[in-house]
Write a structure and sequence with these properties.
With 179 residues, this protein is mostly helical. Among the domains are: 72 residues, Hect, E3 ligase catalytic domain (2-Layer Sandwich), CATH 3.30.2160.10; 43 residues, no CATH class. Helix content is 51%, strand content 7%. A two-stranded antiparallel ribbon has the order 1-2. Helix 1 packs across helix 6 and helix 3 packs antiparallel against helix 4. The protein is globular and about 60 Å long. It starts with 7 loop residues before the first helix and ends with a helix.
Length: 179
């Protein structure tokens, strides 16, 4: 077990699975929110081009997402392609060299074929073990809809979870969230 937590997109790279805009949540939540806004709204008036900013040793550099990116404007017909390219740039291209080196070493220990049946949650548990889940913290920060913390069903819910061991709580959260 290693005392590390990989992002969902990094775990997907290890598994050879395709990344999605939703995976940006762990990497850059603000960018993910902005890209989701682009998908859900009219973009012709934004005057964005097929470029993105990258920070290299403290300097901000604008790079093209495709050939001719400085001259290609975002519009309704190409916004899905734009979002996909920005997501790939942020979660893959920016770490490409490091990712290749990591995967080369990782696959010496655990070949890709051994991981074919795993999801990101299972891989994370194999690498990092079961996370310590603080139920008291969850109780403080949970957002209830249609119920209050004093609702009988909510009280039963916490009573049941309080009886679970850490592995069972982790399994429940994985079942409930899919992550």
């Amino acid at each position: 077990m290693l005392d590390i937590c990989f992002t969902k997109s990094f775990l997907k790279h290890i598994l050879g699975k395709e990344i999605a805009i939703s995976d940006l949540e762990d990497v850059d939540a603000a960018l993910g929110k902005n890209l989701q806004w682009i998908l859900n709204n009219e973009v012709d008036e934004l005057y964005l081009t097929f470029t993105h900013e990258v920070e290299i040793f403290g300097d901000r550099i604008v790079e093209e997402l495709q050939d001719g990116g400085f001259d290609t404007y975002l519009n309704e017909s190409n916004k899905k392609d734009y979002v996909k390219k920005v997501s790939e740039a942020r979660m893959t291209k920016e770490i490409e060299e490091q990712l290749k080196a990591f995967l080369k070493g990782f696959r010496l220990i655990l070949p890709r074929k051994c991981l074919a049946h795993l999801g990101t949650g299972e891989l994370e548990i194999i690498i990092s073990g079961t996370p310590k889940i603080d139920l008291d913290d969850m109780k403080k920060h949970i957002v209830l809809q249609g119920y209050t913390k004093n609702s009988q069903i909510v009280k039963w819910f916490w009573e049941i979870l309080d009886e679970f061991n850490q592995e069972e709580v982790a399994a429940f959260l994985y079942f409930a969230s899919g992550q």
